[in-house]
Amino acid sequence: MRVVLFALNGSYAHTCLALRCLRRPLEADGFEVVLLERNLRDRRDEILQALYAARGDVYSFSCYIWNIEQTLSLAEDLAALLPSAKILFGGPEVSFDTERFLSCAFVDCFVCGEGEEAVLGLCGTLREGGEIPRLVHGRSPDVMGDEGILYRDGDYKDGEMLYYESSRGCPYRCAYCLSSVSGSLRAKSVDTVLADMAAFEALSADIKVIKFVDRTFNFDVDRANAIWRALLDEKYTKHYHFEICATLLNEESFAILEKFPSGKLQLEIGLQSTCSETLDAVARHLSPERVIEATKRIHDVGNVHVHLDLIAGLPYEGYVRFAQSFNEAYFCSDMLQLGFLKLLHGTALRRDAEKYGYISMAKAPYTVLETKWLSRDELYRLSRIADLLDRFYSTGKFARSLDFAVRRAPSPFAFYEGLLGHLSATDGRDIRKLSQTDAFRVFYSYASTFLEADELSCFEEKLHEDYAAHEARRMPRSVICGKQHS
Questions:
Q1: Does the N-terminal peptide bond of residue 315 adopt cis geometry, omega within 30 degrees of 0?
Q2: Taking the CB of residue 206, how many other CB atoms lie within 10 A of it?
Q3: According to the model, what pLDDT value does residue 483 have?
Q4: Which fold has domain 162-374?
Q5: Residue 2 CB-density burial (10 A; 0-12 exposed, 13-18 middle, 19+ buried)
Q6: For the chain, what is the mean pLDDT?
Q7: DSSP code for 367
Q8: Region 362-388: what's the mean pLDDT?
Q9: Per mean pLDDT, which range of 158-167, 258-267, 440-449 is the poorest?
């Protein structure tokens, strides 16, 4: 029996770890497994043809908020083309409030929760000629298996980010996150994790980034410290990404992190808000002051790349209060990521949507459009500011000039508000559609509205340095003169 495991990834650089989790037990039980991945930019007819050409007896689709609409459409057409094939849907997007999908007659079974044992059992039943139920709830084992890195030659491309799971579950119960309703927290041993990191080394020298998908990697600080200490060894050559809780770091953690060579480690830290009332409402009982202090301490050493996350749209945080969170977080990390609350099915905030006056997108990704504290216009303005943050801050291409200018504005948030207003008044184009040269031009034009003459001269020097560091030619005179180019 042939089982096709399929996922539609968010981009070319992504891979789907879930498919690889399913593949191993199926192959061990004698099934022929075809792993098939495409991304959202691929042509739809080519994706459908690849699914059809695989001629599976069973198709298992991995469903997420970024691919659910396209996945539903593809599966419906595939079911018409191959009516004898059985179609399974699994993943976080169909694991909660599954009833909303039951009208999709082309899906034979929905798998809720963890899928390894459930999908294997369903395929076994089909192989024996049995009938499968419409809905199955996967079991969460008490311990994690020692299944290795799950990747193998031929199922990833150079430049792709490879994912690794050293633990499942989360010790926290944040009201906006599906990890708050997942199974029990369990983890692989330190020795197992390090053996798996060695396996990545043996797999390919071309693998650059290993992203740990653990929701809180350092939930056990001693375990995390032991793994980090071992990764200091030069035999581990990859770039490692971890999502951590900053308040769990101890002095040993900081001492270890300080020893990493630049470019080897990246940490993602969730701040979300600095408003205590907001954090209490979402059951995130962490001190924002301690998060900021720990984040800044790592950042100031300069060897570990630190991302800090904020979420707009949380309860009790209006526009002015969010600006305060933004300002308090801005200078603490290498990258400030501004995200927007999504009312995911299965989360407490989804259930409390009426209480908080939430209006969200009717379909995935369910992004909040309005709250009791943020109007539609204010949320849209924040989304534009997020675009500016991505273009000017997160790319690192304006590092010297941006830091200089922001520190001379009334506040970081006021700087981006002003830049948004200036862009709207002088250019009108979406910042994402501006050429790099025109982005430099707009930036200089805006800075000239509030910098003193001597400051502007220094800013211009830093702008030239930024342009030279990232562009193949010298900065055109039009950037300073103000002439527009398409």
A1: no
A2: 10
A3: 46
A4: TIM Barrel (3.20.20)
A5: middle
A6: 94
A7: B
A8: 97
A9: 158-167
Query: Which phi-psi region, left, alpha or beta, contains residue 346 (left: φ > 0; alpha: ψ -120 to 50)?
Result: left
Side-chain-side CA neighbours of residue 242 (13 Å): 21
Q: Which is nearest to 3 in space by CA: 122, 135, 102, 92? A: 122
Looking at the domain 2-137, which fold is it? Answer: Rossmann fold (3.40.50)
pLDDT digits (tens, 9 = 90+) for 378-425: 999 999 999 999 999 999 999 999 999 999 999 999 999 999 999 999
Residue type, 216: T
What is the three-class DSSP state of 347? coil
Alpha helices in 204-302 (DSSP H): 221-231, 251-257, 276-281, 288-301
Question: What is d(CA 191, CA 14) in angstroms, rounded to the nearest whole number?
Answer: 27
Q: Which residues contact 119 (CB under 8 A, 6 or more apart)?
A: 22, 26, 60, 88, 90, 111
Q: Where are the domains of the chain?
A: 2-137, 162-374, 396-486
Q: Which amino acid is at 331?
A: F
State the CB neighbour count (10 A cutoff) for residue 298.
25
Type of residue numbered 16: C
